[in-house]
Amino acid sequence: MPSSRTEVAAVEFGGKIYVMGGFGQGGELVEEYDPANDRWRRRAPLPQPLHHVGAAAVAGKIYVIGGYVTGRGSVNSVYEYDPSLNQWRERAAMPTARGALAVGVIGEKIFAVGGVGTDGRNSNANEEYDPLKDRWTKRAAIPTPRDHLAVGVVSGKLYAIGGRVDGRHAKNLAVNEEYDPVSDRWRARAPMPTSRSGIAAAALGGKIFVFGGESPAGTFNQNESYDPAADSWTTWSPMPTARHGLGAVVVGKSIYVLSGGPKPGGTFSSANEVFTP
Question: 246: closest CA among 51, 36, 42?
């Protein structure tokens, strides 16, 4: 990457990867990567510097949700980016201000789960955003409130994996909970083999791959996948660069793992590594 950052968000749109926000060389940064020619370029910055945000691409737009503003704590802002115009605009605020949350897309709806609220404690919020109507709806609360978790979506169900308690990476979790938006219910599934937080996840081939993380002892290079059909986990080749606060994005049959801190806390990298199962 052109910049060195951590606690970023990353999404795929139109075969390109967008890495947004974070700590390091500017929380307003937006950089676009084209895997086809292995090139980066700078795009219009976020309307305000943000880190620990959630991000998703839906119906031709990219959405950056919640996060932290340094000195202010958790926010409930929602910004929409139009890649074709290279422009941002503000949308309806999330009902519950949260940072270090995770988001997933089911159909054309965005689900924002977990995170840390304005009181500094874990939120159990699970809130659904309809970008076409610019409207939020509260859904069934996540059973295990946590932050720095990751989310993957397979076959219309959302899986909330890992995370930590009250922002403390000494209290990492392996919990894995499945959400069905049709019944608006959660259930526990097989836990992740390695308790981790500050992780990133990406769904490919019916499996959810979970990368990286941090603990007081150091950062993780783990790459473990969850198969919802079998309710089981598989360990894969580890990342070359252990890190936390990273992004993971699927393009084609590969997963790009970007940015992140190589040591616990406020450290930064420009890493861009690709994994092909």
Answer: 51
Considering the entire predicted model, what is its pTM?
Answer: 0.98
- Cα–Cα distances (Å) from 253 to 213, 272, 275, in that order, read 23, 16, 9
Both ends of the chain: CA-CA distance in Å? Answer: 23
C-beta of residue 160 within 8 angstroms of C-beta of residue 127: no
Judge residue 70's burial from the number of C-beta atoms within 10 Å of its C-beta, 0-12 exposed, 13-18 middle, 19 or more buried: exposed
Q: How far apart are CA 161 and CA 72, in angstroms?
A: 27
pLDDT along the chain (277 residues), means of 10: 97 98 93 98 98 97 97 96 98 98 97 97 98 98 98 98 95 98 98 98 98 97 98 98 98 98 96 98
**Of 31, 33, 137, 20, which is closest to residue 79 (Cα–Cα)?**
20
